[in-house]
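PT: before anyone asks, these are the final sequences, not the draft ones from last week. 518 residues across everything. Please model them as a single complex and drop the result in this thread when it's through.
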Amino acid sequence: MKRILIWDVPTRLFHWLLAISFAVAWLTSAKDQWLSVHTFFGYLMLGLIGFRLTWGVAGGHYARFTSFLYSPMTGLAYLRQILSGGGARYVGHNPAGSQAAYLLLALGLVVGVTGLFTQGGEEQHGAVAGMVSFTLGRMFKEAHEITAILMLLMVFGHLAGVAIESWLHKENLPLSMVTGMKDAPEDAPASKPYRLTGALMLVVVSAFGGWWFFYALHQPIEARLGYQVGGKDVPHVAFVGAKLPDNAQWREECGSCHMVFHPSLLPARSWQKMMAEQDKHFGTDLALDAAASKVLLAFMVNNAAEKSATEAALKINGSIKPDAFPLRITETQYWADKHRDIAESDWRLARVKSKTNCAACHLDAEAGTFEDAAMHIPR
Amino acid sequence: MLRIFYTSGLTLMIVAGLAAQPAFAETPNQILSSIQSEAKTVPGFQGFSAERGAIFFKTQHGKEFSCTSCHTENTAAQGKHASTGKAILPLAPSANAERFSDPAKVEKWFKRNCNDVVGRVCAAQEKGDVLTYLLTVKK
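LR: through. Structure below.
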């Protein structure tokens, strides 16, 4: 027996970066406002898998697919041997472990790609923005969630395998994935370290992260008209959405008393009712002249929720009963569902106060885009 | 030669600057005098009073809000919409040059806000008093 390098530097880096990516992406999937982080690790995972597929052909001896080309049947047979307390020791991937590696790579690929299409459909963002409809995006989301769960189960399977194998052969497999070193028979070839490729990987991943978080988290919102949300901790807007139709007169007329609620937040029939009843607009007679009323109504009707310009528009409109004419966005079911978990104390914050003050938490509210990643409760 | 270029360029800039001004722009005093000509049609008109305007501006008129509910006691500072919390830029012309420069806007806001505060259309006397008062507010 001799102690030699089995796992080259890029393979180890890939392994741990993939593990981190999956873990963080899993944990940040729970809340909409972590979407920019979640998406970053999704892209990273896709990039890592792309690298690993290449490295499986061009990498060190034990990283190459040719060194662990076992059939699923061989894998199962090995698994049975292990579970009955036997099973030979492999220096590289064992037949069962290699199945886990293949499945994790395949699942990771599917999770990543379906995530990409979910993002393109639901948020109209990312590499495939505009190519997928909202409805199709929703189907991709289902697939994304199911494959992510399968991947998590596979990760647990892999961890169990590592634990059993480590105990059975009295060696610390996780540590080997850190140092790369293992005890091997005299005739086993050692892997080259490929330190330069590893360093290059780190540079690329850091550069990608720097660019991402610089770009995503440091786009200041400009049009926060009139609201005194500022302060030293003014958050930044991540994922500035596609620019929605705008109208200077609408912004001026509606925005002089309250936040401008983009027409995409209510259906056309609501705006028509609102303008027909403008003499009792939440207690005030707007007294807009005929010309102004006409311009405003046309802009609102032409850009109403039915146009599905944003995720919020689509979902708000879908949640309103056909015979309902809500005049407040807060009356819609979608709004109620999305704000159900907001604590009463958060509503009472000095910067929030009113439920009409969307811009207190939705930094892009004035633009009407209501991006997931542009949410921030100003505690 | 250079000098000709320089002066003609300067003239051009001034002309362009003037042309860029909106056609409806008026000064608060012009708006006040048009309110005055309306007020004069009422018998017994004896001019405007900043003092009366201040009292009108700061007191309630049988309704929930007074002018100061939104514009605050200090009209040279930023106000805040009483029900939505939206920031309102200063109302006093000394602090905000845009105020009382567009007759259509002046008419719209007097109509809307008088309705909210007084529950009716304001008389020319009342509008003139308030504007006279606002013109006395220093930055």
